[in-house]
Amino acid sequence: MPTEVPIRGGMIRLGQLLKLADLTDGLPVKELLAGGAVYVNGEPEARRGRQLHPGDRVQVGDAELLVCAGG
């Protein structure tokens, strides 16, 4: 079951979400994305500026996040 991450407004950038959810394990976000470990809605993603909206799912290893409105 994914962890819900509420965001303010209608959008958050992928890099911001990874930092907010503390999923970088000390790596810079750029390195984490370059390593091919991040998936958005089931597709590999390497752009830290990728816009995410409520309903988007992000997976990093065993962790899965669901972007939701609120917060």
Task: Please characterize this protein's 3D structure.
This protein is α+β, with helices and mostly antiparallel strands and 71 residues long. It has one domain (3-69): RNA-binding S4 domain (Structural Genomics Hypothetical 15.5 Kd Protein In mrcA-pckA Intergenic Region, Chain A, Roll). Helix content is 18%, strand content 35%. The chain is built from 2 helices and 7 strands, in the order ββααβββββ. The strands form 2 sheets. The protein has a 5-stranded mixed beta sheet, with no helix packed on it. It has a two-stranded antiparallel ribbon with strand order 2-5.
Summarize the structure.
The protein is α+β, with helices and mostly antiparallel strands and 71 residues long.
SSE order and pairing:
Blueprint lengths: L2 E5 L4 E2 H7 L8 H6 L3 E3 L2 E2 L6 E2 L4 E4 L2 E7 L2
Parallel strand pairs: 1-7
Antiparallel strand pairs: 2-5, 3-4, 3-6, 6-7
| Helical residue percent band | 10-25%
How many individual β-strands? 7
Termini separation comes to 20 Å
Sum up the overall morphology in one term.
globular
Number of helices: 2
Instruction: Tell me, rounded to a whole number, the average pLDDT.
Output: 91
Low-confidence stretches: none
What spatial order of strands do you see in the largest sheet? 1-7-6-3-4
Q: Could you spell the SSE succession in H and E letters? A: EEHHEEEEE
The CATH architecture would be Roll
CATH superfamily: RNA-binding S4 domain
| Domains, number | 1
